[in-house]
């Protein structure tokens, strides 16, 4: 049985950022460095991504024939224990007058081989479903490098993967310790590689502990 559905609703103070789902799927240690040790560093990829999100949010809301677009929409799920902002949500007017939400996430690069982007978008859909008491079958991810939308169907498998990632995130934060570093190809693109230190003895310590040790 789904453990998220078993427990009571998360309290306001327990809500974690939706963006952290991508961090934990990319690397548990990276996620801990950011959300437990509060370490962050920019590289070209993170700066470009941040600027793209700002550009989308700054565009403001918009109305087109049959569609209302809300940008930078605050969303949350007390069932999943998540909170954040949707880059854009299109509300499509249906024949019966109802508004069907269609969440859109903006990414600077191109589609990835893993599901981390899909999970982040699905989490936004699950938040909207809970808030609006409605079913959202699909959404899209716009990739800046390809200038195309990738349509994402919120299948049962993707929903379960998203809920699993949320559970994993809450378990990591509850434990409150940073996992040991494991060197992978992903490390080359990580903006925190200099803090993570996967090639050194510091890899089995938290970044803060390692810095304190070498500063003695």
UniProtKB/TrEMBL annotation:
Any one GO molecular function term = metal ion binding
Q: Which cofactor does it need?
A: iron-sulfur cluster; Mg(2+); Mn(2+); [4Fe-4S] cluster
Pfam families with a match to the protein in the record: Cas_Cas4
All copies of the DUF83 domain together span 19-197
Q: Which UniProt keywords apply?
A: Antiviral defense, Exonuclease, Hydrolase, Iron, Iron-sulfur, Manganese, Metal-binding, Nuclease
Cofactor comment = Mg(2+) or Mn(2+) required for ssDNA cleavage activity.
The free-text function statement in the UniProt record for this protein reads: CRISPR (clustered regularly interspaced short palindromic repeat) is an adaptive immune system that provides protection against mobile genetic elements (viruses, transposable elements and conjugative plasmids). CRISPR clusters contain sequences complementary to antecedent mobile elements and target invading nucleic acids. CRISPR clusters are transcribed and processed into CRISPR RNA (crRNA).
Gene3D superfamilies for the chain: 3.90.320.10
Question: What biological-process terms (Gene Ontology) are attached?
Answer: defense response to virus
In the Enzyme Commission scheme, what number(s) does this protein have?
A: 3.1.12.1
What protein family does this chain belong to?
Belongs to the CRISPR-associated exonuclease Cas4 family.
Name this protein carries in UniProt: CRISPR-associated exonuclease Cas4
């Amino acid at each position: 049985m789904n453990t998220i559905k078993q427990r009571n609703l998360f309290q306001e103070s327990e809500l974690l950022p939706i963006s952290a789902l991508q961090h934990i799927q990319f690397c548990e240690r990276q996620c801990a460095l950011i959300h437990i040790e509060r370490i962050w560093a920019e590289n070209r990829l993170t700066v470009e991504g941040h600027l793209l999100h700002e550009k989308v949010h700054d565009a403001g809301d918009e109305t087109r024939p049959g569609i209302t677009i809300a940008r930078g929409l605050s969303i949350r799920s007390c069932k999943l224990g998540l909170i954040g902002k949707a880059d854009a949500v299109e509300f499509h007017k249906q024949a019966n007058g109802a508004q069907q939400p269609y969440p859109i996430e903006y990414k600077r690069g191109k589609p990835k081989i893993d599901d981390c982007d899909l999970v982040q978008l699905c989490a936004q859909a699950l938040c909207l479903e809970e808030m609006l008491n409605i079913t959202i079958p699909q959404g899209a991810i716009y990739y800046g490098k390809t200038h195309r939308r990738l349509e994402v169907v919120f299948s049962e498998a993707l929903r379960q993967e998203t809920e699993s990632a949320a559970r994993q995130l809450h378990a990591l934060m509850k434990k409150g310790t940073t996992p040991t570093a494991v060197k992978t190809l992903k490390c080359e693109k990580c903006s925190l590689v200099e803090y993570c230190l996967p090639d050194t003895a510091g890899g089995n310590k938290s970044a803060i502990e390692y810095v304190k040790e070498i500063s003695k």
